[in-house]
Automatic annotation (TrEMBL), chain A:
PROSITE patterns recorded: FTSK
Top-level taxon of origin: Bacteria
Protein name (Swiss-Prot/TrEMBL): ATP-binding protein
GO MF, one annotated term: DNA binding
Signal peptide limits: none
InterPro entries referenced in this protein's UniProt entry, alphabetically: FtsK_dom, HerA-like, HerA_central, P-loop_NTPase
Source species taxonomy: Bacteria, Bacillati, Bacillota, Tissierellia, Tissierellales
FtsK domain mapped to chain residues: 158-483
Protein residues bound to ATP: 178-185
UniProt keyword annotations, A-Z: ATP-binding, Nucleotide-binding
PANTHER family: HELICASE HERA CENTRAL DOMAIN-CONTAINING PROTEIN, HELICASE MJ1565-RELATED
Taxonomic source organism: Tissierella pigra
Length: 613, 331
């Protein structure tokens, strides 16, 4: 390997007759006039001067090449390999043309590749194309993980990529970008596994119900790691919810707003009517009674109601309504109050007010990963409340520490969410956006961090995107997203051009703490996602299952003549409780014939279904 | 504009005239009936046979017996008019067996250092051309000789007629010939541009009414089928007295015909070598075996590299003084 062509202080070309270059590979240039220079391959090309088969303008047919091959000459061996290499640090002078180039050894690149010990960081995968350097790697970095390659599961051959989680204190927040099927969710899973290994308190907002870590991946034979005690899946409205009594009027407004947008006058209604320590029912009743009074229309009619009440109870209730009417009718228009009522009702129906967040807080205190599941809209509502509450708990603790007053300990934590553009969209307001924005801007000081994954970085709020100091960029095809990535990361033009063609699981990691972009491959996950079964396999398996069930039911009754179908239907109903009509049974039997479980034959008495012998 | 047009007009007329006079001169010969000509060739020149491509069994055998070596040379001239230039020659012998390293040799010539004193200009021109041919032929023979000694190939394909070496590099050529005969290496020359007039001369001899000079090149144009070969009878082959047997062959779909020489002691392999050349020639090419094209491409030195070498390894002062012409400084 040698430097060829015109060089600069930043970039050189390297030529070789024998070694093909790989992109993102590291090479050391032994410049005779300067110290050894380290560079990274940014473009790799192979060139054969005889191919395309055009020699002196002639088109060469393959039979001649075949003949030459038999004579011992393989035209492929005339290939020249050329790499464009960017120096990691600018050289003092342009590199000497003709200088030798060699592969670095592990100790020469260790500081560039590995920033932390495997115990202190997240072992997320391998740095691609480093297998040559990994040969003499320290033992402690070997055999940490497996990766998936075309041929299946492979033991680690390359230098591991270890994310220095401590550096998040200086370079907070991680963005995970990539189109669907690019390995984004998978990458997120691996990140979460590592967070669990480190016992870092984490909140995961999981709109896809996929972040379950209890299943071990079947492909890892020596898999002994069990995450069962390290995480908990909680569904909003079922396991966790909002304790109404703990809500401030701002919280309540946020929640109602998440249910459906609040007008100014509705905001006002909450401010006026909601009192601290109101329970759900006391607040709801208050609203209800006010509207009933308003529906009467005037104070005279309410008085009428009071005067002509059937009994004491009713009288009392109408007196109460009158009281509310007098104090609030002017400030709370009927329609706004009605609006609040149906929003409240909607939230209640989703079960949000039936539980509290105690369990989440406890889990975080014990360093667990808490997975909050629910549909996107519910999660938006709930996370607004939850994150506000958790963040301020943490913040209060830190502030109290500073003011030297006693306060209950609350740990630092990480918030992880997929489809982050739903929680913090660009261009319009969403309740969860303000809290995410707040954490993104000042969470670092209090030890609250974000890991936001999205397939549409373009739709993610820009203030938040700007705060993501580490970015994982998987395959991205949309031009607008690539444009955003170009603007928001230090990916080079060559790298952004590769984005649409990345393999699933290959990722550019652009990190402020590394100071450059690393091309890595995410490791095989230790746990498996509940959504891995191919839906088409599922259909097939389900069909087969049903067929076998049905076969078991009718097996003892075979052969079945078409004349006795009615009797059979009754028998089946008696034995199993399954009801068939004449048509549906015949249909089902025909299906079984088609699938060759049974066969149909003609007899002198008509059709007969019988077992295949 | 009009001025230029007038000049071109003048030139146009001249070209039209050329065309007319050529037509007049060659009409008779070139309109000879195809069948008649083929019969004539069969009778007086040699047998026309149709070749089959060699199959891989043969080729694998060749590989086992040392492969095929292609030999070619190249020249470059740096500088201006006499005597301020330098001619650079490079010869290459390349084996189809990839592990047999290609053999390169180079040489250079400049009239500034010719042994003889400078004489009259006209004579110099000839002498220089002679000198160049000698050096080039020599270097080609040398690389071929080294290839024979080092690799003992099955056959050597030289680029161009073998007769050239007789003329320009007699002593080393005889050396190579002997070596090949002793070692059993087939020695073949492949001629892209045939310059003989065997058929034309015979036509003139037989039919006294034909009295124009025609070369085989134009006579055979389009007359042979793809893969057909004429084995030239030794009696009519003018190269025979120098010790060669020759053929003509249409080796590609192009209507042009190429030639091939072999040393007469190896005459029995003539057809086999013809088939080899045919096999190695792509059907859509100009008719040259691909191997020789590859060797040719590899032996060429680009002017840019030549210039770079001169500038790098010559004293700038000397280089400018002697070898940079006014023409080279034009843009």
């Amino acid at each position: 390997m040698q430097i060829v062509g015109i060089t600069t202080q930043q970039e050189v070309f390297i030529g070789s007759k024998t070694r093909n270059f790989r992109i993102n590979e590291f090479l050391i240039i032994e410049d005779p006039y300067q110290n050894d220079l380290m560079g990274e391959v940014v473009e790799a090309k192979a060139f054969n001067r005889y191919i395309p088969l055009n020699i002196a303008g002639d088109f060469v047919d393959s039979s001649v090449l075949e003949s030459l091959k038999t004579l011992g000459y393989n035209i492929d061996e005339e290939t020249i390999y050329i790499a464009k290499v960017r120096l990691l640090n600018e050289a003092l002078y342009p590199v000497q043309t003709g200088a030798d180039v060699r592969l670095p050894e592990f100790h020469e690149v260790k500081d560039l590749m590995i920033k932390t010990k495997k115990e202190d960081g997240l072992v997320l995968g391998v740095i691609k194309n480093t297998d040559d350097m990994a040969i003499d790697m320290d033992e402690e970095y070997k055999n940490l993980l497996y990766t998936f390659e075309e041929k299946g599961l492979c033991p680690q051959r390359e230098i591991p990529y270890i994310l220095d989680v401590k550096s998040m204190h200086h370079y907070p927040h991680i963005g995970v970008f990539g189109g669907s099927g690019s390995g984004k969710s998978f990458g997120l899973r691996v990140v979460l596994e590592e967070l669990m290994k480190q016992n870092i308190p984490t909140i995961v907002l999981d709109p896809h119900f996929e972040m379950d870590f209890s299943e071990r991946a079947g492909y890892l034979e020596d898999n002994t790691i069990d995450f069962k005690d390290k995480f908990k899946c909680l569904q909003v409205g079922f396991h966790v919810g909002v304790k109404f009594e703990d809500l401030s009027s701002q919280d309540l407004k946020n929640l109602l707003d998440a249910a459906s947008h609040l007008t100014d006058s509705m905001n006002n209604v909450v401010d006026v009517l909601f009192k601290r320590k109101d329970s759900f029912s006391s607040f709801y009743n208050k609203l209800q009674m006010l509207t009933e009074a308003q529906e009467e229309g005037s104070i005279d009619r309410i008085d009428n109601r009071i005067n002509y009440a059937d009994h004491q109870e009713e009288k009392k209730a109408w007196e109460k309504r009158k009281e509310l009417y007098l104090s609030y009718d002017k400030t709370c228009p009927y329609n706004s109050v009605k609006g609040i009522i149906w929003r409240l009702k909607r939230l209640d129906n989703e079960g949000i007010f039936s539980k509290d967040v105690r369990e989440i807080e406890d889990g975080l205190q014990r360093g667990k990963l808490m997975v909050i599941q629910g549909n996107t809209r519910i999660l938006q509502v709930f996370s607004t409340y939850l994150l506000n509450s958790l963040y301020h708990k943490r913040r209060d603790y830190k502030d109290a520490l500073y003011k030297k007053i006693h306060s209950e300990y609350f740990p630092p934590f990480i918030v992880v969410t997929d489809e982050a553009h739903n929680f913090a969209p660009k261009g319009y307001d969403s309740p969860s956006k303000s809290i995410l924005k707040e954490i993104s801007q000042e969470g670092r000081k209090y030890g609250a961090f974000l890991i936001l994954a999205t397939q549409r970085p373009t739709l993610l709020d820009e203030t938040i995107t700007a705060q993501l100091n580490t970015k994982f960029i998987f395959r991205t095809v949309r031009a607008s997203d690539i444009q955003t990535i170009k603007e928001e990361t230090d990916l080079t033009v060559e790298e952004t051009r590769r984005l649409p063609y990345l393999r699933t699981g290959d990722v550019f990691i652009s990190s402020a703490s590394m100071g450059r972009t690393i091309f890595a491959r995410i490791r095989a996950a230790i746990s498996s996602s509940p959504h891995t079964e191919n839906p088409f396999d599922e259909l097939k398996n389900k069909g087969k299952e049903d067929d076998e069930k049905f076969l078991n039911v009718i097996k003892s009754k075979l052969p079945i003549n078409d004349t006795e179908l009615l009797d059979i239907i009754m028998e089946i109903e008696k034995e199993t409780g399954i009801t068939f009509t004449l048509d549906s049974l015949e249909d089902r039997l025909k299906q079984m014939v088609e699938k060759e479980y049974i066969k149909k034959e003609e007899t002198i008495f008509g059709y007969r279904y019988k077992i295949i012998s | 504009m009009i001025f230029i047009y007038n000049i071109h007009n003048d030139l146009k007329e001249k070209i039209v005239n050329l065309n007319n006079s050529m037509e007049e001169r060659y009409r008779e010969v070139l309109s000879i009936d195809k069948l008649f000509l083929r019969r004539f060739i069969e009778e007086y020149i040699g047998k026309i046979t149709s070749l089959k491509k060699l199959d891989n069994k043969y080729l694998a055998l060749y590989e086992a017996k040392g492969g095929i070596v292609g030999v070619d040379g190249s020249t470059n001239r740096m500088g201006g008019a006499y005597p301020h230039f330098v001619d650079i020659f490079q010869g290459l012998a390349k084996s189809t067996i990839i592990n047999n390293k290609a053999i390169f040799k180079s040489d250079l010539y400049t009239p500034l250092f010719s042994e003889k004193e400078n004489n009259i200009l006209a004579e110099d021109e000839k002498e220089i051309a002679e000198q160049r041919n000698k050096l080039l032929a020599n270097i080609e023979v040398e690389v071929a000789l080294e290839a024979v000694r080092k690799y003992k190939p099955y056959a050597i394909l030289m680029d161009g007629s073998l007769i050239r070496y007789n003329i320009y590099s007699y002593d080393s050529w005889i050396n190579l010939r002997d070596e090949c005969e002793n070692q059993g290496v087939l020695l073949v020359g492949v001629i892209k541009d045939i310059k003989t007039s065997i058929i034309g001369d015979k036509l003139k001899e037989v039919y006294s009414n034909i009295n124009v000079e025609v070369y085989d090149r134009e006579l055979l144009f389009g007359q042979l089928q793809y893969g057909e070969m004429i084995i030239i009878n030794d009696e009519v082959n003018k190269k025979n007295k120098e010790g060669y047997s020759s053929i003509f062959m249409r080796s590609s779909l192009q209507p042009t015909v190429i030639g091939m020489d072999i040393i007469d002691s190896q005459k029995e392999y003539l057809e086999e070598m013809g088939r080899l050349v045919f096999t190695l020639t792509p059907e859509n090419s100009r008719g040259v075996p691909l191997w020789l094209d590859i060797v040719d491409k590899e032996v060429q030195i680009s002017d840019a590299i030549m210039k770079g070498l001169m500038e790098r390894y010559m004293n700038r002062d000397l280089y400018e003084r002697f070898f940079v012409s006014e023409r080279a400084k034009r843009n």
